[in-house]
Amino acid sequence: MVVPIHTTREPGRSLVERIQLLEGHNGILSISFVQGFATGDVPDMGTKVLVYADGDAMAAQQLADALARDLIALRDVLLVRYLDIDTALDRAMAAPRGPVVLADRSDNPGSGAAGDSTFILRRMLERGIRDAALGPLWDPVAVSIAFDAGVGARIDMRIGCKIGPLSGDPVDGRCLVKALMRDLKMTGNGGTPTHMGDSALIDMDGIEIVLNTSRGQAMNVDLFTQLQCDLPGKRIVVVKSAQHFHASFSTIAQDILYVGAPGCASPDWNALIYRKIRYTKWSIQPRESTLVK
Questions:
Q1: Model's pTM, two decimal places?
Q2: Is 216 helix (H, G, I), strand (E, B) or coil?
Q3: What is the DSSP letter of 152?
Q4: Rounded to 5 degrees, what are φ and ψ at 18?
């Protein structure tokens, strides 16, 4: 099977707390859950349990088998239920206050996506949603144009969709260049710097967009704040990330919604083309879409 284990919610949180309590007792040295990485098209892709014991292979095997059975029993609950774009935007706009963080999992560079899709951005513009932020959107051409124009310039720009049709269509609009930074370094997980390259903050019809030149997913709020984007004052913040964003962005979010927009890293795994994985592998098999309304 392939199943994500979000330790920020139940039952994933309790699962990890349980294996941590088992470690260091009865000869059990280390226990790991491997989630499976659905966009990895290799034969052995899938959820695994790894147990190390001190000189007792049978004890390790028995515990691994027991934990694997527990994971299988919980797989339906562990599976993330993604919202379509309009349902997510409806819920965000109905929230008593923001910001509501929308995770664009389908365009997560950490899952192999380009980071340049415009599906959510286009829908927000069509609906007239303002006081929002989105990023990072990978577009080296647009960043270069913004640097040439300079802070304070108002220019017509075409942004996004530089890789292919799975990123959608570019978005055209009048933009205000609000901030520029050479070699922006976002704080990554564990505090390590993540180079996002030359970056620009532009405003397109009330939506502030972080454009970057080095592909990477959103992991820390300083991706926005270094460019003087006021995240706590936004109604909606769209991040191109699957889950790595959570630790940092949960500190400012009133709610977090996971969005199953179109894209090459779609969470609707049955829409992906697999050539190398070994079947059958729950839940990658002919069935209805995992997207819910």
A1: 0.92
A2: coil
A3: T
A4: -65, -45
- The C-alpha atoms of residue 197 and residue 182 are separated, in whole angstroms, by 7
Q: Which residues have C-beta within 8 Å of that of residue 290, sequence separation ≥ 6? A: 79, 81, 82, 260, 267, 268, 269, 270, 283
* Cβ–Cβ under 8 Å, residues 257 and 102: yes
Q: Which structure tokens are listed for 56?
A: 């007792």
Nearest to 266 by CA among 168, 188, 186, 172: 168
What residues are paired with 157 via a beta bridge? Answer: 173
Q: Are 21 and 254 in contact (CB under 8 A)?
A: no
Task: Phi first, then psi: give them for residue 208, nearest 5 degrees.
Answer: -90, 125
Predicted local distance difference test score (pLDDT) of residue 279 = 86
Query: What does the longest C-alpha to C-alpha distance in the chain come to?
Result: 68
Report the chain's mean pLDDT, rounded to a whole number: 94
Nearest alpha carbon to residue 15 among 92, 78, 82, 79: 78
Mean pLDDT computed over 112-141: 97
* Helices within 140-252 (DSSP H only): 140-149, 222-225, 246-249
Give the residues across from 256 on adjacent strands. Answer: 101
Cβ atoms of 36 and 3 closer than 8 Å: yes
Note whether 179 and 228 are within 8 A (CB): yes
How many whole angstroms separate alpha carbon 71 and alpha carbon 69? Answer: 5
Place of tokens 């470690």: 23
Is residue 135 over pLDDT 80?
yes
Q: Could you tell me which of 142, 120, 145 has the C-alpha nearest to residue 133?
A: 120
